[in-house]
# Entry
Amino acid sequence: MKAKQRRQAEAPAGEQAKKREGGANFEALTQTIEEKILKTVHDLYTKDKDGLVAIGNGVKVELQPPRKKVSVMICGNHSSGKSSFVNWYVGENVQKTGVAIETQGVTFVQNGKRRETLQGPATVSLYPQLRDIAKEKGVLENLCTELSISTERKFGLVTFIDTPGLVDGTTQYPFDVFKVIKFFADQADLIFVFFDPIGQALCTRTMKAVGLLNQEYPERVRYFLSKADDVVSQTDLNKVMVQITQNLSMVVRNKNFDLQTIYLPSEERKSNVPNCISDLCKTIEKTINFTVQRTLDDLERDCNALVVAIDRKLADNDRTSAENSRARNRGVGFGLLALTSLLMVFLAFAYRLIEDFLRTQTDPNVASAAGLVGSVGRFAENLSKESSYFAPVLLGLAFVLLLLSKFTWRQKPTLSRKEKSALLEQKKYVTDTVVKKIRKELYDEYLHEVVHKE
# Structure
C-alpha cells in the first residue's frame, strides 16, 4: 500500500521532468543556428564552476560573457512610428501606438516564454547592466519590458529598446532624456533614428539627440524617414527629404549618411514611394551575423588569454617553489653555522672543566680520556686564549646567524598539488573542449548553414 502511494506521489514529478525535457528538446529543434551559437557560447562563460568567467577569476583575467541577443535602440520624434515598427517586426501589438504621446519611458521588447509585462525592478533584474541608470531620478518608474512569444523574422535574437518620443515646447520628461538616450545607445548594437514626414521631424530635441549620438556612436546610427507613404506627392516627399538631409548635415560628422524611406507594408494601401523596410530588416540580420562571428572569435581570443594566464600562474608557482627551496637551503646553512658557533663555545668551557677534573684522577684510563678530550677541545681552548672576547663574539655571531636563518627561511605561498592539477584540468578543458571541439563544431555548423542557404 505504501509503495503504491509512493509511486503515485512520484508520478507527477516524473511527468514534470518529461515535460521539461520535452520543452528543452522542442526549443533545441526550433532554434536557429545563430540562436544556438549565441546561447551556447553565453552558457560556456556563465557556468558556475567551470565557466570561463569563473576560470578567469581564478587567474586574474576579467571576462565579460557575450550577450545572447542583438540590441536595437530606436529613437526619434513623437509619432514617428517607432512603436508601430516594433509591433510590425514582432508580429504582435506589444507597444501602444497613437497620436498621443504614449512613450514617456523606455521599453525593452524581447522574446520570452510567454506574453508578459515586467515593471522597472523586474526589468533591472533581467538586465543587471541597468542598475546604474535605474538610480537616476524618474528612470525606474518609467522602465519596463514587454515579453512576447513571437518567432517572427529574427525577433528571437533581437532586443528592441524603444525610447521616448521627442517633442519641443513645454513637454517635460520624468528624467534627463538625453542622458538616458546616451546610456542606452552605449548598450545598443544598432541605433535607428526615425523621422516623421508630417510631424516634428526637425524638432530641436530630436536634432540634439542626433548630434549626441553621432558624436559618440556614428558607426551604429541609421536614419529613416518613416511613414513615407503618408506623403501625398513625390514633390512633397522630395522637399521633406531635402529639408531633413540639410538639417542632418549640420549635426552629422559623416556626410555620406543615407536617409531611407520606410513604411509598414499593407495590402489595402498601395504607394509608389520606395519602401526600404526590407533593407532595414537586412541590416538587423547582418548585425546578427557579425555578432555571431565576433562572438566565436572573441571566444577563441578569451580562451587563449586564459591559457596564457594559466601558464603564467604555473610558471610563477615554479619560480616561487625554486626560490623557497633556495631560501630553505640558505636557512639550513645559517642554522648550521649558528650551531657550530655555539658548539665551539660549549667545547671551550667544557674543556677547562673536564681537564681540571681529570688532572685530579690517577687512573690510567681516565688519563687517556683526558688526552682525548684535550685533543677535541684544544682548538677552542687556543682560540679562547687568543682573545678574552672569544665567548661573547661567538654567542653574538650565533645569534645573528640564527636571525638570518629565520628570515631567509621564510616561504612564499605556493599552489598545492590539488590546485596545480585543477589548473592543468582547466587548461585542458579550455583548449581541447572549448576551442578545439565546441567552438570548431559551432563554426563549422554556422558556415555550413550559411553556404547551404546561399
User: Anything to note?
Assistant: The beta strands are 70-76, 106-111, 116-118, 143-148, 158-162, 190-195, 221-225, 259-261. The CA atoms of residues 38 and 68 lie 5 Å apart.
